[in-house]
Amino acid sequence: MPASAKRSARNDKATPRTASKEVRRRQLVDATITSIARHGIGGTTMTTVTELAGLSLGIVNFHFQSKQKLLEETLVFLAREHHDLWEKAYRDADLGAPAKLLAIVDAHFHPRICTRKKLSVWYAFFGEAGRRAVYRALVDGMDSRRIEVSTRLCARILAEGGYDGPPAHEVAGMLEALYDGFWLNMLMYPGSFTREGSRRQIHLYLGTVFPRHFHPGPASPAATNAPRKEKIDEVAEP
């Protein structure tokens, strides 16, 4: 039996033919994430997606009509997944502004969000110069919400501590740059950069800016960006 037929048979067993619209669309989005991670955006086609999903070309055309719509839905899915996680963590965080800010930081390195597959897809999208403006328009609202919340939390911490350091919007902007930078380094240098090590370095940055609010303890081997066996690929996708 051809490999594509075997995948189709496995998926048919896992997902009933009567699956809901939402289930089918998620199945196709997951397959698109895998295809982009393997082949890039240029090498991803409706055929590569349907083969990975174990579905017919007619199904993907029915749900998305075009490759561009499928790509856009995939980007929005990743952005919404990330947004919902940090928003929930922020709202659930106990205590005050420092705990809430750390909840946002830590959500960026959650095992469900920070995987090589998903990081590959993020950077594939924003490497597409001709479509970058379209992609940004799809996720700018969620990004703006995160920056706004982080800035507000930083302003509260500045006021509580009476700090003379950089203003809140600059700290929030630096955090955004650190998230992007560590994600890229984890993608490019997986043997040297880890989720836990990257998360901890951002905690250390906050400790230098707000020393009376953030007191990270001594680094441990499991919490430094040094060569080690952990691979972010090892985390199972949902």
Describe the structure.
It is a single chain. This protein has 238 residues and is an all-alpha fold. Helix content is 69%, strand content 0%. It contains 10 helices and no strands. The longest helix has 30 residues.
In short:
By secondary structure, the protein is mostly helical.
Give, in order, the helices and strands. HHHHHHHHHH
Overall pLDDT: 85
Percent in helix: 55-70%
Would you count the extended β strands for me? 0
Second-tier CATH architecture of the largest domain: Orthogonal Bundle
> What's the shape?
elongated
CATH class of the largest domain: Mainly Alpha
- Rg on CA atoms, Å: 20 Å
Going by CATH, what is the homologous superfamily of the largest domain?
Tetracycline Repressor, domain 2
- Low-confidence residue ranges: 1-16, 217-224, 226-230, 234-238
Alpha plus pi helix count = 10
Number of domains: 2
- CATH topology-level fold name of the largest domain: Tetracycline Repressor, domain 2
Cα-to-Cα separation, first versus last residue: 27 Å
**Strand percentage:** under 5%
Q: Helix/strand/pairing class, anyone?
A: mainly alpha
Main sheet attributes: strand count, strand direction, barrel closure? none
